[in-house]
Amino acid sequence: MTKYQRIFVIVMDSVGTGAAPDADKFDDVGSDTLGHLGEALKGELKLPNLGKLGLSNLRDNPIKGVLNAEAPLGYYGKMAEISAGKDSMDGHWEMMELPVTKPLDYFPNGFPEELLAKIEKFSGRKIIGNRPASGTKILEELGEEQMKTGDLIVYTSGDSVLQIAAHEEIIPVKELYRICEYARSLVNGPEYLIGRVIARPYIGPDKDHFTRTANRHDFSLEPDGKTVLDYLQEHQLHTVGIGKINDIFSGQGIDEGYHNESNMDGMDHLDHVLTEDFKGFCFVNLVDFDAMYGHRRNPTGYAKALMELDERIGQVLAVLKDDDLLMITADHGNDPTFRGTDHTREFVPLLAFSPSMKETGSLGIRKTFADLGATILDNFEVKGSDVGTSFLADLK
């Protein structure tokens, strides 16, 4: 018998909670997004609602400014990742019982000329850049040139991504999307296998005023197997994707989708879905932590965004029904105090709450993000791929 009618999962994109056991393989030993945020804010990181849910309790050392809850509202723990990479795609797919076991291609020295030549021929535009770079810095360096020439700024990062940036007034967003769709067709394997092609439109008159817009679009590798979303959909359970969820899964397994302009816009969408009467699963991604603050190594902005989310979490807790389950987690880390500008291999938080819970406690350390997906399937009595281990019975 179904325990919860509606399950909501909020992914705080990149909000890791300490170096994972295999962090040495990624040169990420010592990373700790939440811990270092607390230290950077000198105890001024105030997260009362996430704190009540057990955000500090799940750690070996409490987050500075976020005390352990003496009586947590629900259950808390953390999850380790088994996927080959530390990208958003890897994390989200693994949550949905489809770990990425084959390493994707990375391009620390830029993309092969033969690949770029095909994009140039298709688009009729030259390519500039072609190196790993911070998105904001490469706009400072090449944005004005792009505006003058109409070229495409192509760059990558420590993740398996091919990013194409263009000024919206020089290359219309629809044209940029069309170019990215073509680039996506070139990197689905076997020669090149890239996780995401990302359209990065921007606006502004000059390098001192360039701003990347909410028209960003991720063209992800299509899932190479069934996910929790597919299994639920096959059993006539309603599935909702908020934020870049639709992009990450290429629309597969999603009935109702919403694009976010910002974290707060995403929470507005969640507030709307909370008013809907359905049986199923709502999957929310809030990307600002990662895109605006983690990669830019801005702990102050990151902390402010977390505190804004915490306030909205309080509003969500107040309207949840007895047969609702809310889980809050992350897809990887992106420690804004760490070296470089890339994601960090970390544990991610796992918080679970329902107004109907009679007990609270620890869910321990989960061996894979897939335990979250296994729990969702277990709740709806749906058979999946058996990658994860359900903790539904522990939620009492």
From TrEMBL:
Reactions catalysed according to its record: alpha-D-ribose 1-phosphate = D-ribose 5-phosphate; 2-deoxy-alpha-D-ribose 1-phosphate = 2-deoxy-D-ribose 5-phosphate
Gene Ontology MF: a single term: phosphopentomutase activity
InterPro entries: Alkaline_phosphatase_core_sf, DeoB, Metalloenzyme, Phosphopentomutase_DeoB_cap_sf
Pfam families per record: Metalloenzyme
NCBIfam families in the record: deoB (TIGR01696), PRK05362.1 (NF003766)
Sequence similarity: Belongs to the phosphopentomutase family.
PANTHER family reported in the protein's UniProt record: PHOSPHOPENTOMUTASE
Species name: Xylocopilactobacillus apicola
Keywords: Cytoplasm, Isomerase, Manganese, Metal-binding
Function according to Swiss-Prot or TrEMBL: Isomerase that catalyzes the conversion of deoxy-ribose 1-phosphate (dRib-1-P) and ribose 1-phosphate (Rib-1-P) to deoxy-ribose 5-phosphate (dRib-5-P) and ribose 5-phosphate (Rib-5-P), respectively.
Name recorded for this polypeptide: Phosphopentomutase
Cofactor: Mn(2+)
Cofactor stoichiometry and binding remark: Binds 2 manganese ions.
One of the protein's GO biological processes: nucleotide metabolic process
Pathway: Carbohydrate degradation; 2-deoxy-D-ribose 1-phosphate degradation; D-glyceraldehyde 3-phosphate and acetaldehyde from 2-deoxy-alpha-D-ribose 1-phosphate: step 1/2
Residues binding Mn(2+) 2: D290, H295, H343
EC number: 5.4.2.7
HAMAP family listed in its UniProt record: Phosphopentomut
Domain Metalloenzyme residue range list: 5-383
